[in-house]
Structure formats: C-alpha cells, structure tokens
Amino acid sequence: KNEVEQSPQNLTAQEGEFITINCSYSVGISALHWLQQHPGGGIVSLFMLSSGKKKHGRLIATINIQEKHSSLHITASHPRDSAVYICAVSQGAQKLVFGQGTRLTINP
Amino acid sequence: ETGVTQSPTHLIKTRGQQVTLRCSSQSGHNTVSWYQQALGQGPQFIFQYYREEENGRGNFPPRFSGLQFPNYSSELNVNALELDDSALYLCASSPIENRPDTQYFGPGTRLTVL
Hints:
The complex is a heterodimer. Helices cover 0% and strands 59% of the residues of chain A. By secondary structure, chain A is mainly beta. In chain A, strands 2, 4, 5, 9, 10 and 11 form a 6-stranded mixed sheet that branches. In chain A, strands 1-3-8-7-6 form a 5-stranded antiparallel sheet, with no helix packed on it. Chain B is built from no helices and 11 strands. In chain B, the strands form 2 sheets. In chain B, strands 2, 4, 5, 6, 9, 10 and 11 form a 7-stranded mixed sheet that branches. In chain B, strands 1-3-8-7 form a 4-stranded antiparallel sheet, with no helix packed on it. In chain B, a hairpin with a 2-residue loop joins β5 and β6 (53-57).
C-alpha cells in the first residue's frame, strides 16, 4: 500500500463544475503539499498545509490531521485547470513522498 | 517562474548505456534533490545534495549517482541503463537544507531506454 493515496486517478468534468480531489496518507507528516503538473512535465507548488485550510483564487485546500486526509477543491473550473494534481507529504528532512497523481480534464 | 533548468529535454538511450542529466539550480539555492517519475506515477525521491555532498538517498541502486558543483548545478548519472529506467527525471532546488517544502522544480528530462 502506498504511503500517499489519491482519488480519483482520473477526473473529467465540464467547465464551471466544482472539483474535489482527495488525498489520504498513512504516515506522520510535517506538511502536506498540493502540486500541479502540466503535460510538459514541470511541477508547480500550489499549497503547503500543516493544518486547517488555505485559499488561492479558485483553489482551496483543506487538511484534517486526525483523519490523515486532505482535499483540493477547484471552484468554477476552466479548461486551463486541466493538469495532473499531485499530493505529496514531507516526512521530516530531505524528501517528499508523492501520491500517484490525479489527471483532471475540464471540457469546454 | 522557478528558474530551475534541466538538460536535455528528451533523451533516448539503449540498455546498458550510461547517461548524464543536468540541472541548473535557481540562484541562491544550495540544495538540489532528484526525483524519478515513471509514466502515470508520482515522483520517487532518488537523492539530495547539499554543498556538494550527498545528503539523503531513496531506494535506488548505486548505479544512480550524482554530483553537485560549487556553482550548485548538479548532475544525475545512471550507469548500466535498464528498460525500467525510462521515466521523467525531475530536479528540484531549495535554498534551505532539509526543507523539502521550499523546493522549486525544473521541467524535467524525459529519458527513454530502448
């Protein structure tokens, strides 16, 4: 079993829909990260969370430390939101442990 | 814009060959981490370099090795390539040792082993 699990693996929606991507982890963490990866491969950091909730534009990330669960929400989704969204956790020093990613496709 | 660059963008090698991938860190960053991302999977930590010394390693065999130079650019070397080494290789630089939450990712090098 992977230490970081995401669901769904693939998600297709229509423009304007509210999107939720889930992440569960099984290890102790110092922080949880949501990252966005476009087809070219480069990764951009969206959020880093250790508790509560963060909002940036149409993106909202929440984390429940007790339940070891985080969600990434996208409001009023747009085709340019189409990308792979990756959840990763920091386990102390040195490295990030990544989930397998959720491929999001928003159709116009 | 992160300022982390990688070269080459794409590379094709055959089994048994050796490959060197390069990463130029963002200005002011003295720590670099390398990750391997197989198709459809999340990245896996290979190793990290801090001030030219290896500073942590994931579950990768010794044929994966690295270097960090005084200007904080970095190389990933893979010897005796295997088909399963085909992947996107990402480097990420950070201004602070042991703080993965400050990492900035490069665009990656896609390696295909035939």
